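Let us work through a complete example step by step.
Step 1: write down the sequence.
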Amino acid sequence: MPGTWSRDALINVLLIALACGLLAALAGMVLYYSDLILPGVSTLGIDLGGKTRGRAATLLEEAWQSYTLTLRVEDTSWTATARSLGLGLDAQATAAQAYRQSRVFRPGRGPVVISPVLHIDIPTVQAALNRLAAEVYLAPQDAGVRIVNGRLETIPARPGRELNVEATTNWLIQSAHQTVSRRVFDLTTRTLPPAVSNIDPLIERGNAWLTRTLLIQAYDPIADETWSWPAEPPTWIVWMTLKADPSAPTGITWTLDAAQVTAFVQAQAGVLGETRYLKAEEVVDQVQQAIQNESWRARLRVYHTPRTHMVQFGETISSIARQYGMPYPWVQQANPGVQTLTPGQKLLIPSPDSLLPLPIVEGKRIVVSLARQVMWAYENGIVKWVWPVSTGIPSSPTSPGVFQIQSHEENAYAASWNLWMPYFMGIYRPVPTADFMNGFHGFPTRDGATLLWTGNLGTPVTYGCILLETGNAAALYQWAQDGVIVEIKEE
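Step 2: predict the structure and record it as tokens.
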């Protein structure tokens, strides 16, 4: 019948199909037992199907040489090879594992990604992490202070971080396959809290502090002149770098920009002229103390340069020294080898500051008139006492000039004249290298019994000192501490 297979034809077809199946099965058996990795197996992004185990191992070893990981912490990342981090790949074992996995029966067989066989060198891991620690480290930032439009504002605190090498190492050991597969290594860090996290309560206090005007005053003890230079907050605030510090009295610590402070003061100091100056180190120190102590007043001392005198006809060292308010031996010492004077000759006159070796006491000043033989004591610009005095005789005169109280001795002895001088206060050395001083004292005694000069007040009678009635000398002794200025005037 047409369309009907004969029995023999059907048998032939079946035999051919059986032969093909047997051939396919034989081919599959040959492939299964061959050295080839069956298709559908990969690792590290490399398809190993169809490759011998040896070839697969070679490919894996080559890829591992440059296999990189991204090390990540928060929003920062670094790149490093897996080998540099102490991760090693056993390429032979990985290829063998791929070979085995390719022969495992899996219904609905699909692609298989196997984990590589890794080994971890812990000392290398830790060494690599220790090298990275410096880059991971982020110092905590304390709450800070900034100046905006003349007022303080808070700079928020920020925690810091440091790499936890031990925890990161343990994490890598536990999750090495996951890390290699993702190619991302998340580092473990520790949070470092800031020491100062909240300074809001201090800001209001600090803002009150920054409303103060800083008054800088320069005082010339020789001329008894004072200059005042106010620095308003917008001016002096920029001299400072501020930092929050709750332990500080104002809640703020700070440093001064010495250059800016000095520049401001020197700009004002032009009024002093060429022979007067301020010491830069004292300027900065006094301004710093005024702010730190919250006195808001910096008191600066004006200093004087040495001067040059051109000798005029008829002048002597003594007359020149007196003209400059200085004992003549001080001028002699400044001009060694000068025996005689000639007109036109130049002499160096020491700075009058050499006679004021101690810090200046503010608010007190003693003025003595040689012509009138009278003394005035001033306190805060107001006369406290006016007393008669006796100064030195012509052969041993009291030098005019500006000096200061330098010593107190309740009963001093002058060996040269065999005098005991009660309530003695030394004010200057007639000779720079001398061990004795001229000064104030009450009525002296000789031999401990004879009281001298009680009837001579108001006329020169001493050997250079300034004589007071003993009760007055005692009062002055208690009132005038070391450093008080003494001005001795000719008129």
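Step 3: interpret the result. The longest strand covers residues 419-428.
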